[in-house]
Design a protein that fits this description.
The chain is an alpha/beta fold and 447 residues long. It is built from 11 helices and 21 strands.
Length: 447
């Protein structure tokens, strides 16, 4: 029988008896660090694994002129409310990074960066076996806090476009100077698409925008930020099971608006009046022409109906409460499409680049548990999945509108930490499970 060298012997021993953690948190974004905060408060041993760097998405997947679209007072990470001089302002990208760096320092999580979780598998005896890029470990509880935006969506027609056209997804967009001279087509008019189109437009670039069904809202109305009004009306505390759309609200596109330069509306009609070219949904490419759905007028009209509808709800609230406020108003279009344009010949467009702003798909293939629906989204009740000990955190509308944002993730993280504590405190002896002792930060914990 061959003799193993010491390295092989250690590896074999680790495989036979891998390191164990009471709680393993997958993802070092604001969600993962938030649940770490509450687990530490409860003395529950845990480890946070992040395949890149903690909070990397805010530095790596946001353009240079990015700012929050929600006011700073809504930034309420655990133990780290915004306390700066502009509660009703909108943090810019550098300010967001400073805010998050301070949050990480406060939490001081038991974190290992640069380790990717490759497989999470329930064990027959309970708990989970977790394979990582640094080896294998086990855990009693696993919190999947890796978000829901994993795979950038780029349609197959992109493969057929001329190679001279630069193509990037919204997560790769940084600023207008990254593209060669010429027109830029932005595909998608959700929050990212509308703001990137605005960024290019303000820089003097020729912009073509393929408009989808994204709704819009006012930035300010009747003397206040619309977010302030909606907060007073209880919208941000509404749980998903009380929303008129129920879980269907998770599929909704976010309203486009901006916090740039102190905050303002994004009015695609105004952009068009200033020279931006608007089209309907991009539906194909025939080798010479980009083809669009003839639905631009309907999309703009629907966005305006939602805009005015939100304002009308605020009007009712003001009247019902007997509040003093500036007069009500109704948005009227400043531009209407002269005709629906169904095709754009590339030879005439002078197209230099395309920015795909049509979202992301989830990728939870590494979670080997029967907790997903036919679209690959986890099934859960406020983050608690049907698989005992498996949780999800940081997803849009996990519980409320703010679940995937700085405003609501703390509430969700606390709820899961309390659920985890109940399970673990009712389990084996705490000391035997390692509870109450801080998790080590040596990468050898995952071997």
């Amino acid at each position: 029988m061959p003799t193993l060298d010491p390295t092989q012997a250690l590896a074999a021993a680790a495989e036979a008896s891998p390191p164990h953690h009471p709680v393993l948190v997958v993802g070092g974004g604001q969600a993962g660090l938030s649940v770490s905060h509450y687990l530490q408060q409860r003395g529950l041993g845990h480890l946070v694994l992040e395949k890149q760097q903690a909070l990397h998405a805010w530095a790596d997947a946001r353009w240079d002129a990015f700012s929050l679209v929600t006011p700073n007072w809504q930034c309420k990470l655990p133990g780290h409310d915004y306390d700066g001089p502009e509660p009703h302002g909108f943090m810019t990208k550098p300010q967001i990074l400073d805010y998050l760096a301070a949050f990480r320092a406060k939490v001081d999580p038991p974190l290992i960066e640069g380790v990717a979780v490759q497989r999470v598998t329930p064990r027959p005896e309970g708990g989970f076996r977790v394979q990582t890029s640094a080896g294998t470990c086990t855990a009693d509880e696993v919190v999947v806090a890796s978000g829901g935006y994993h795979r950038p969506i780029v349609p197959r027609l992109a493969e057929r476009l001329p190679p001279g056209i630069v193509q990037v997804h919204s997560e790769q967009y940084r600023n207008p100077a990254q593209f060669p001279p010429g027109a830029v087509l932005v595909v998608g008019s959700g929050q990212s698409g509308a703001q990137i189109a605005e960024d290019l437009h303000l820089a003097g670039r020729k912009v073509l925008l393929a408009v989808g069904d994204a709704p819009r809202c006012a930035r300010f109305y009747r003397g206040r930020d619309v977010v302030d009004w909606l907060a007073d009306m209880g919208y941000y505390d509404m749980p998903v099971d009380q929303h008129p759309l129920r879980e269907g609200v998770r599929d909704n596109t976010n309203h486009y608006v901006t916090g740039r330069d102190g905050g303002r509306d994004i009015d695609l009609r105004q952009f068009a009046a200033q020279g931006m070219e608007l089209y309907g949904l991009l539906r194909g490419f025939d080798g010479e022409r980009l083809l669009f759905e003839p639905g631009l007028t309907a999309a703009l009209d629907q966005a305006d109906r939602i805009y005015n509808g939100i304002n009308a709800a605020i009007d009712k609230h003001i009247a019902a409460q007997g509040l003093e406020a500036p007069p009500a108003s109704v948005y009227t279009p400043v531009w209407t499409p002269p005709a629906e344009r169904s095709a754009l010949p590339l030879a005439e467009a002078g197209l230099a680049a395309i920015v795909w702003c049509i979202g992301f798909e989830p990728d939870f293939a590494w979670v080997d548990a029967p907790v997903f629906n036919g679209r690959g989204h986890p099934v859960h009740q406020r983050g608690i999945s049907p698989q005992p000990g498996l949780y999800f955190l940081g997803l849009p509308w996990l519980h409320t509108w703010g679940s995937g944002r700085f405003s609501g993730v703390a509430r969700d993280a606390l709820y899961l930490a309390e659920a985890i504590e109940r399970r673990l405190r009712g389990g084996p002896a705490l000391q035997a499970a390692g509870l109450g002792s801080p998790a080590k930060r040596d990468p050898l914990e995952v071997s």
